[in-house]
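Readers of this paper often ask what the protein records in our data store actually look like. Such a record has a labelled line for the sequence and another for the backbone structure tokens. Nothing more is needed to write down the fold, since each code stands for a local backbone conformation. The remainder of this section carries one protein's record, kept here as part of the documentation.
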Amino acid sequence: MTPAQATDVTYDVLDFDQLDGWADDDHAAALKVFLNTCRDMKDPDWRALCKYANADPEPRQFFELFFRPVLIDDGQDALFTGYFEPELEGDRYRSSRYRYPVYKMPPEALRNNPWLTRREILDGDAMAGRGLEIAWVDDPVELFFLQIQGSGRIRLPDGSYIRVGYRGANGHPYRSIGVELVRRGVYNAHQVSAEVIKNWVRRNPVEGRDLLFHNPSYVFFREVSRVPADQGPLGAMNRSVTTMRSIAVDPSFVKLGAPVWIEKDGKKPLRRLMIAQDTGSAIKGAQRADVFFGTGDKAGQEAGKLRDPGRMIVLMPIQRAYALLPESAI
């Protein structure tokens, strides 16, 4: 793990009674989500834990017996945000209404990093006539936010759905258009949310289109319609994520599949055991997490409001946790 070599990263092994609200959580719900992806973890210690988890243990006892809470600190303040699975209106065929393409990843974008910018992709002809369109949608602003979320559902005119998941990106850094609106003096930082940004872009179509180009990153998708409609979208582990139990993390600090204890402060405090099953281009740092809120507009509204401090503590297998400590601390 990269941070193990970093001199400015510290590790503090805690006791479970130091986790605020630990005893009150639904550990069975967390264990069920852990089981969804633990079989994909290949390290021997994690494989052994997954085997024990499948033997129907008492959930809280399982976590307390085989794990230790580890607070990883890279010097950055903790930040919790939210993400969701958007639903867009679209069709498999272009029409006067549905004219904004959801693209597959072209082979040259895989070979070249970085590839073309967002502006070059959308204003140029690199994608034209190649059959790379998965679908066409009716709203370029919703399509932009679909790329930020990394997955979503497209409702077709007959009521059926296409589900798309993250395939890759063009290799350019993600730049927040919310931060750019604040820099331009359009809004104060506390006023910015996904809905505020969408409304501003729609009210200002020329300036709005230019604002979207401020983010040079461009995301390509793959169709994942085999995932049942009653399950969440596929995360980075290629398994469905679970509403309010899955988080996106920075995998250079937190191993994908690991349980993570969340102590989110703010207007709606949250104390909950979640599972690190996803990643995101804007999720960087040891104390950075994106909480999955579910599918649809309501989930999107709740996710868009979340920008809170707190702390997150990773549950690691016992030997792995103590191996991170300097000898003088053991």
Notes: The chain has a mean pLDDT of 93. The longest strand covers residues 161-169. The first helix runs from residue 27 to 38. The chain is about 30% helix and 25% strand.
